[in-house]
Structure prediction request, 222 residues.
Amino acid sequence: MTQDELKQAAAQAALDYVEEGSIVGVGTGSTANHFIDGLARMKDRIAGAVASSEASAERLARHGIRLFDLNDVNAMPVYVDGADEIDSSLAMIKGGGGALTREKIVAAVAGRFICICDESKLVKTMGRFPLPIEVIPMARAQVARELTRLGGKPVLRTGFVTDNGNMILDVHGLSITDPVGLETSLNQIVGVVTNGLFARRGADILLLATTRGVERHSRATQ
Ligand code: 5RP
Prediction:
């Protein structure tokens, strides 16, 4: 199976978690795109969707799926999205597609975060994938200095502007042994809009597509 076929298998498995008549939170990226295409086949059985990016909103609209503004939504049973890396506690690095801020906001409203990944995304320790950080443009250099002090090597994502009009710094060279602690401290840097660690609110369920089938992992509850 190719990596794209594995992504498709994970996305297909997530359709089982979509509740009839509900509003579905929808992520961004190639795996989320497969989920959107699957959702289109059951669009008459859902109320609609909240998108985490302009790109996903366009794809949903092309399929004729009704879009909701998050501010008009009180309850959303599930949010379905991919990840760039995920560890065994179901903490994730996200933002490879630059949609991390809206992804984190939509996920915060959802009852459950269903992460859909191919098996290459499961890692022991996160950090090989550069950690995306969305920054206010005027704070770029100051945030980069702070990130360097923390031991990272920030690289500006050139030619890229987020849906919110901001910039992305991709931070290389971090070994993320304390995802919750690092997510919290990065949030304290003035000028950071969002960091791509999703650890304080990680995934609740991981649907991991492997060549042997789709595995289901649940977050351990303390
Ligand atoms: C976008 C994301 C994506 O979920 C992440 O980059 C994974 O993408 P893909 O499904 O294309 O591998 O966080 O901001």
